Each structure stands twice: as C-alpha cells, then as structure tokens.
Amino acid sequence: xxxxxxxxxxxDQSQIGDARRQATKIAxxxxxxxxxxGRIALVVTELATNLVRYGTEGEILVRADIVNDQKLLExxxxxxxxxxxNLQQCLVDGYSTGGTPGNGxxxxxxxxxxxxxxxxxxxxxxxxxxxxxxxxxxxVKRRSTWSAINIPAPQETVCGDTWRVCERxxxxxxxxxxxxxxxxxxxxxxxxxxxxxxxxxFLPLATMFENLHVRMQGTRGAALAVAQVDTKSQxxxxxxxxxxxxxxxxxxxxxxxxxxxxxxxxxxxxRKAQVFDYPCPLGALLILxxxxxxTRWSFDNYPGxxxxxxxxxxxxLYRDFCRGRDDVTVVVxxxxxxxxxxxxxxxxxxxxxxxxxxxxxxQSLEQQVSILNGELAETNQGVVAxxxxxxxxxxxxxxxxxxxxxxxxxxxxxxxxxLGSIRSIARILLDHMDGPLTGxxxxxxxxxxxxxxxxxxTVNDLLDLAKIEAGRxxxxxxxxxxxxxxxxxxxxxxxLLVNDAVSLILEEPGEMPRVYTDDKKLSQILRNFIxxxxxxxxxxxxRVSARRSGENEVTFAVSDTxxxxxxxxxxxxxxxxxxxxxxxxxKWRGTGLGLSLSKKFAELLGGSVALQxxxxxxxxxxxxxxxxxxxxxxxxxxxRTGDGRTPWYVK
Length: 651
Fold this sequence. Notes:
Mean pLDDT: 82
Shape: elongated
Number of helices: 13
Structural class: alpha+beta
Helix content: 25-40%
C-alpha cells in the first residue's frame, strides 16, 4: 500500500493533542475499530510527550497500511535530541529520567504489533511502531519485509513522489517515481506512472518502461526506477531513468553496490531502457530513493541499524539526509527475509560461488560504465536542447494566442460602426422617411438589413469568443425570477415567428425559486438554442421549460420538432466554427459559434450544456446552472454596478 505519510511537528506541549487527533482521524478513515483507535491514541500521546520532554526538532509520521491482510497504522517518532545512552533500561517499566512513573516506553511496546527503536548519542532517537486491531501479529504471508517514507515538499499537500512494492510467489517488484518539480502536476505525473505499473508489475522491464513512457506523455514527466527481485535465483533486474538512486546492501556489510540509471525523463525523452542484472543474496537490503534524499550517505556511523526493520532504516535515512526542500521518498526492502518467523534457508550459495558471481558482475559493470559514460554527454546535450525548444514553443504559442485574441477584438470593434450605419439607413428607407419605395426596392433593402443583422451577430459572437480566450469576460450575477426571464424571451422572439406552422411555447415556471446568476448570459444561451430551433423546424412546436435538478441546480430545456441531429455530431456541434453539412444548414449560413459560445457561457456560470436528438424527430438542447452562482461570496463588501449587480471577472 503506497500511501503518503502525514508529517506532524511536535515541538511544544500544545501539539501533543493535535498529533493524537490527527492520528486517530486517519485510523477512523482507514476503518480501524474503536479499541484500536484507543491504542493508537495512547501510543501517539506517549510518543509525542517524550518528544516534547526529551527531543529536539521532534516530529511524528503517520501512515495507514495493510500488512498480511491486516489494517494497521504506522507511527514513527523522530527527534534530533541527545539520544538515549541507557536504551535497555528505558524499556523497563518504572525507569524514568524525568520524574514520571516510567511506564510510557513499555506501554508503547506492549500496545504495538511491531516496535523498534534506534538511538545514538548525540544524534537522536527514532521509534517505529505498527498498531493494528489484533494485539499480536498474524503469521507472516509475504516473503519479504519492506517499508517506505513518502513525504511532500514543504507547503505542499500532495507528494510528487510515489512508490509501489508488489510480491508474487518468489518474485518482488519495487517502483519509485519522482515527478518533475513538486505539487499537483508532479503528483499527477507520478500517479499516471504508478497506474501503468499496477497493471502488470512483473512485465519485462524494457516493455514496462515503454508502457510507462506512453502513459506519462502529456504530463510533466518523471524520473523513475524499477527493481525486480527473484528470491529463488537470488538475482535482481534493474532499470532506471533519471535521478532515482538505488543500491543493494548485502548481509554483514555497511557498504553497498550502486545500481545504474540512464539520464532522461520518462514521458518526455529517454532512450530505450537498459536492464542490468545484479546478485541479490538472501537478507540483502534493497534501497531506492528520490533526489529529496542526499546521495552521499553511509551506514558506517550507524552500528546495529542494518539488521533492523526496513521502516526504522528508512526513517533514520530520512531524518539525517533529507534535503528539506523537495518531495522525498525512501523505500527499503529486505527480500526473502521473514522477520517474524525468522526463517533460515539451507540453499544459500557458498562463499566461493558468490565470489565468482561477483567477479563476473564486476566485469559486466565495467563494460556498462564505459557505455553509459559515452551516452552521458550526448544525452545531456539532448535534454538541454529539448528544454530550450519547449521554452521557445511555449513563448510562440502564447504570442500567437494573444495576437489572435487581439485581432478578433480589434476586428469586431471596427465592424460595429459601419454595421450600425447600414442598419440605421435600412430602417430609414423601410420607414419611407425619404419617400416611398417600390416593391422590389423594399425587398432588396430588407435583404440588406437582414445581412447586416446576421453580420452583426457574427461580430458579437467573435467578440465574445475573443474575450473568453483572453480570459477576461465579466460575470454580473443578480437575483431574478424565472417568470421575468421567460417574459423577456417571449417578447424578444414574438416578432420573429413568421412561420405560422411553428409555435413557440414557454411553459410557466411554476413554484421555481429565484435564481442568482448572470441573467444576460443565461438569456443569450437560451436565445441561441431557440434561434437554432427556429432555423431547423419547419412545422410543429418549440417548447421552452425549466425544472429543478437536484437541490441546488436548475435545468432549462429547449425542445423542437425539427430535423434532428445525427448521433455522430452531438459532441462536434459544441466546438468552435463547426456546422453540419445538410441542405437545411446550407440555407442558413452562420459562423458555427452560437452553440460553442453557449457551452462556454454555461461553464463560466458553473454549469453545463447537453443535447438529446434524433434525426427527423427533433432535438432538445438543455443548460444546467446552479441556483446560486458560486462567485456570490461577500456580497456586502464588493463594489456594485449601477443596476445593483455585482461584477465578477473570470480569468
């Protein structure tokens, strides 16, 4: 289970209760019962109290986990204090150096399924606990023991790193991903890679990396590494791309063998993954970590730590080598090392066989190092060039978008003045203010007037599109009754009903509540829907209705008995400049922006549009918006416009 740790600083007395509350909340969300939550509360309280009394820069890490099908909470207490010189005495009930009864450490040990402590003078103390519903551990089913530290960068609520450990028979697969940067976008890149890994953790590594690269395209990309261990053959296959560090520590040795990774970024640019083989004897430690942890560290100064629980080892490394400015992940695994049952195998290879294997591996690694050094300079140059190209492309895209929006805006404004003049002159001629017109002249002037009206609508649509794409369009919410909205629409379309075979019906809203939103934008959406229905309905009716949709939304529907729309066009017609090729469509020319703008306006109001249609039967266009616009906060403190509206600008 690859969950992120919650980090709780514990520096003073007031933070003890906060640590207890946050830990029990996680336990409750994890589904642990009340008795277990009580044990967790006691353990966290005792650990936090000790941090305040004896520790320095104390913190508690909490993570929900499942081990051997048992739900539990992992609790780690970390300090950088003076350390404990008489560790064994501290675990005996009644011993205290602070005037207390001295039962705290023993109580923590008794309440925990797993309890490990490591302390060094004067480096500080780390205590690792697992607390579950059962008071004694279940029989261990998994052949390996592993744990991890996974903590987001300062001020972040999500971690851009993630990890996985999967076990199958005598095989083990370990993944660590470090999304570029930190925050939600890095976390998204890591999550995409983890989901691809979860589908088949035991794929051949070359194939797995190809799948990961494809899945992560479109994200920031990430550094990642995968180690696959076969405990039967005691061999490890490893492939890494980017700045994931990995090493194997053999039993009885504080020095480790580093595992090689390629340069590159999965999801953006990397060569075909190169897979390396290494020996991995029973009881060895496999350690993978992101660059949130320093790479230059050694176990030389930590006597007695290597045989301990992987969770304790990971916590010590995090405490002493965390960079403190990025996400950090440390995964420690002990393949085929059953800690609770203490299994020992009889098929451990002899020392001579192991030395021969090591010599062969050294020769292979020397060749690989030579190849990697040759690729390193070329890859670095490629990465630098790629970043430069991406930056240039981003600048060019921003400039092109800005120029397009500016052009549409300028063009729309420049067209409005002559269009207004054309419409005014046409109206003067049709009103016979300069004398009567012949029938043919009247018909031609009406053509001019209609063309000017259509062109003016096109200009308005283009101007709205430019405002939306520029990220500057005003939303002016106000309270209004649906009856008033429907009356305005009825009055607006009454002169346009020139076809006696078509009826426009606006259903009474009934007991609908008042709505707080931008009625002009909502009216424009409904006008676009009704105008489309009038164009493509030769006989029958167009019906406009409103109904409640849940407790906090209202849905407006415009239904017609027109020509209908084929299913393959249902999504396309809401895109910019899209028109369906049909004889009726060719009769009614337009820009194809009406429905696209309706969709954009609905989204700005916090709603959505929908379509139900069948060829030769009719169509129903609908828009669903909240009864109260989400931007309606702090109404009394915002400046208002002259008509009592409050302007909100969406950017």
